[in-house]
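Hi support team,

I submitted a single chain yesterday and got back a structure, but I'm not sure I'm reading the C-alpha coordinate output correctly. Could someone confirm the output below corresponds to the sequence I sent? I've pasted both exactly as they appear in my results page.

Thanks,
R.
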Amino acid sequence: MDINEKQKLIKSLQEEEKLILSELTELARKNPNVKGDFNVPFPNEGDSLDENAREITEFERTKAVVDNLEKRLKDISTTIEKLNANSYGVCEKCSVEISADRLQAMPTANLCINCAKVHSHEV
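Hi R., thanks for writing in. Yes, this is the structure output for that exact sequence:
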Protein backbone atom coordinates (compact mmCIF):
# COMPACT_ATOMS: atom_id res chain seq x y z
CA MET A 1 0.00 0.00 0.00
CA ASP A 2 1.49 3.31 -1.02
CA ILE A 3 1.41 6.46 1.12
CA ASN A 4 -1.51 8.01 -0.81
CA GLU A 5 -3.66 4.91 -0.43
CA LYS A 6 -2.77 4.75 3.24
CA GLN A 7 -3.71 8.40 3.85
CA LYS A 8 -6.94 7.97 1.88
CA LEU A 9 -7.88 4.91 3.96
CA ILE A 10 -7.07 6.69 7.23
CA LYS A 11 -9.21 9.66 6.20
CA SER A 12 -12.10 7.38 5.23
CA LEU A 13 -11.86 5.52 8.54
CA GLN A 14 -11.73 8.78 10.50
CA GLU A 15 -14.86 10.01 8.73
CA GLU A 16 -16.67 6.77 9.57
CA GLU A 17 -15.42 7.10 13.15
CA LYS A 18 -17.01 10.56 13.41
CA LEU A 19 -20.33 9.26 12.07
CA ILE A 20 -20.35 6.39 14.53
CA LEU A 21 -19.54 8.70 17.45
CA SER A 22 -22.41 10.93 16.37
CA GLU A 23 -24.81 7.98 16.29
CA LEU A 24 -23.58 6.74 19.66
CA THR A 25 -24.06 10.11 21.34
CA GLU A 26 -27.67 10.16 20.09
CA LEU A 27 -28.37 6.70 21.52
CA ALA A 28 -26.29 6.56 24.69
CA ARG A 29 -24.12 8.45 27.14
CA LYS A 30 -20.34 8.24 26.99
CA ASN A 31 -18.85 6.37 29.92
CA PRO A 32 -16.22 8.77 31.33
CA ASN A 33 -14.34 5.90 32.98
CA VAL A 34 -13.89 3.60 29.97
CA LYS A 35 -12.65 4.74 26.56
CA GLY A 36 -15.03 3.75 23.76
CA ASP A 37 -17.78 2.65 26.13
CA PHE A 38 -21.29 4.06 26.07
CA ASN A 39 -24.11 3.46 28.54
CA VAL A 40 -27.63 3.05 27.21
CA PRO A 41 -30.19 4.83 29.40
CA PHE A 42 -33.17 2.72 30.39
CA PRO A 43 -36.39 4.28 29.11
CA ASN A 44 -39.10 5.07 31.63
CA GLU A 45 -42.53 5.21 30.03
CA GLY A 46 -44.58 4.23 33.05
CA ASP A 47 -45.50 1.40 35.39
CA SER A 48 -48.03 -0.70 33.48
CA LEU A 49 -47.07 -4.13 32.13
CA ASP A 50 -47.37 -2.90 28.54
CA GLU A 51 -45.15 0.10 29.24
CA ASN A 52 -42.60 -2.08 31.04
CA ALA A 53 -42.53 -4.51 28.11
CA ARG A 54 -41.97 -1.64 25.67
CA GLU A 55 -39.19 -0.26 27.88
CA ILE A 56 -37.38 -3.59 27.96
CA THR A 57 -37.79 -4.14 24.22
CA GLU A 58 -36.56 -0.63 23.42
CA PHE A 59 -33.61 -0.95 25.81
CA GLU A 60 -32.54 -4.32 24.36
CA ARG A 61 -32.83 -3.04 20.78
CA THR A 62 -30.84 0.11 21.54
CA LYS A 63 -28.24 -1.83 23.54
CA ALA A 64 -27.66 -4.21 20.61
CA VAL A 65 -27.19 -1.27 18.21
CA VAL A 66 -24.83 0.48 20.63
CA ASP A 67 -22.80 -2.71 21.17
CA ASN A 68 -22.37 -3.12 17.40
CA LEU A 69 -21.37 0.53 16.97
CA GLU A 70 -18.86 0.27 19.84
CA LYS A 71 -17.30 -2.81 18.24
CA ARG A 72 -17.06 -1.08 14.87
CA LEU A 73 -15.51 1.97 16.54
CA LYS A 74 -12.90 -0.23 18.24
CA ASP A 75 -12.13 -2.01 14.95
CA ILE A 76 -11.65 1.33 13.20
CA SER A 77 -9.40 2.65 15.98
CA THR A 78 -7.28 -0.51 15.90
CA THR A 79 -7.00 -0.32 12.12
CA ILE A 80 -5.87 3.31 12.20
CA GLU A 81 -3.26 2.40 14.84
CA LYS A 82 -1.98 -0.44 12.63
CA LEU A 83 -1.82 1.83 9.60
CA ASN A 84 0.21 4.39 11.55
CA ALA A 85 2.51 1.67 12.92
CA ASN A 86 2.97 0.09 9.46
CA SER A 87 1.58 -3.23 10.72
CA TYR A 88 -1.65 -3.10 8.71
CA GLY A 89 -2.71 -6.09 6.63
CA VAL A 90 -1.10 -8.85 8.69
CA CYS A 91 -3.22 -11.65 10.16
CA GLU A 92 -3.29 -11.52 13.96
CA LYS A 93 -3.44 -15.33 14.23
CA CYS A 94 -0.94 -16.66 11.69
CA SER A 95 1.02 -13.51 10.66
CA VAL A 96 0.30 -14.10 6.96
CA GLU A 97 -0.39 -11.08 4.79
CA ILE A 98 -4.14 -10.53 4.40
CA SER A 99 -5.14 -10.45 0.74
CA ALA A 100 -5.67 -7.05 -0.88
CA ASP A 101 -9.14 -8.17 -2.05
CA ARG A 102 -10.17 -8.96 1.53
CA LEU A 103 -8.80 -5.66 2.82
CA GLN A 104 -10.56 -3.74 0.08
CA ALA A 105 -13.86 -5.43 0.92
CA MET A 106 -13.29 -5.17 4.67
CA PRO A 107 -10.61 -2.60 5.56
CA THR A 108 -10.79 -3.45 9.28
CA ALA A 109 -10.12 -7.17 8.74
CA ASN A 110 -7.61 -8.44 11.26
CA LEU A 111 -7.61 -12.09 10.15
CA CYS A 112 -6.76 -13.72 6.84
CA ILE A 113 -9.63 -15.55 5.18
CA ASN A 114 -8.44 -18.97 6.42
CA CYS A 115 -8.15 -17.88 10.05
CA ALA A 116 -11.47 -16.03 9.79
CA LYS A 117 -13.17 -19.25 8.66
CA VAL A 118 -11.68 -21.20 11.57
CA HIS A 119 -12.59 -18.44 14.01
CA SER A 120 -16.21 -18.30 12.80
CA HIS A 121 -16.56 -22.01 13.53
CA GLU A 122 -15.16 -21.54 17.05
CA VAL A 123 -17.70 -18.88 18.00
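A quick pointer for reading it: The longest helix spans residues 49-84. Let us know if anything else looks off.

Best,
Support desk
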